[in-house]
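User: Can you predict the 3D structure for this chain?
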Amino acid sequence: MSSKTAAASDSGLDHATTGLRNAALRLAFGVTGCFAIVEALDWDATFLAPLLAANMLVKTPRPPSLAQGLVVVILFASSTAAVLLLSMFVISNPQVLIMALIQLFFLSFYAHRLGAPDLATLLPQISAVSLPIVAVLSPDSAGTFARTLVAAGFVALLTVWVAHAAFPAPAAVAGAATPAATTSLEEPVAAARYALLDTLVLMPLLTWFILNATEAAIVVLIVVVTLLRQTDRQQGKSAALGLILGNLVAGVAAGIAYNVILLGNTLPFFVTVCLAATLIFAGRIATAGNRAPVYVVALGTFVLLLGLSLSPLPGSTGEAFISRLLNVIFASAYATGGLSLVARW
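Assistant: Here is the predicted structure, written as structure tokens:
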């Protein structure tokens, strides 16, 4: 009996090790693949597809089914179109726009807390924080940016499927992940409470940037949304400082990677550098345990800053990299400070 028990234990350990390795490889190759595709196609807003893919791959031990993928595609296409129309026709009446965005963010945060697919909630949120700003900065670019958002969602979803096919989770690991994900979902009342608090933290900053649109707005708002989407609401001061430090490290890493990429200035060289950097983040996410959310946020910041360096947003004048890094630090401090203020509620 003892030998059988030891063999089963070793088998379980091997499955766990394989699962962690494949999860890291899936994340790194998925993000890098998205970057390679959008760079080869010379898209604007290079960061969008890799950021969406990273969020999906971090949270899904198994790939979405075709039916789930179809629902997600319909959802993010319709939500992006709705935000675009709202931004274009109500931009002259910011009070109406802000009230509509409050409802959208509450519903999307609520769905996220109840366990909705990440792509189905993240892309509408990115649309809602970016399209109104782009519409103010460059009205002619709003439609193009909306199409880029939808295309980025398609590419991210396809990349997730390919990454799961190339680096599948072991059956034991994938099967064990399903009950854990089910039991960790928030109860509806708690989900509504957290969604309300997330919305309360985000909306003052979003309101300010809608009334006073700047180039920094989209960077700051996407970082804040990424931080708010973290599910651990019992973070102490050390965890909050960890998130700020993680974003600082990610910003420095993005700056180094960008300057190294400029030296080679070829797509294969870019893919190599991007893969090496994302493998480091993915490895930490897979093995960090309770500290994984810090590295998840750091990876998102790395993707955002590197993508913006390669392809500035519409209406941007190409602000200095150090300015973007300072914006990320400000966004991290704002989000963690806002969460600490509302945590006692």
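Residues 4-13, 175-185 have pLDDT under 50 and may be disordered. The radius of gyration is 20 Å.
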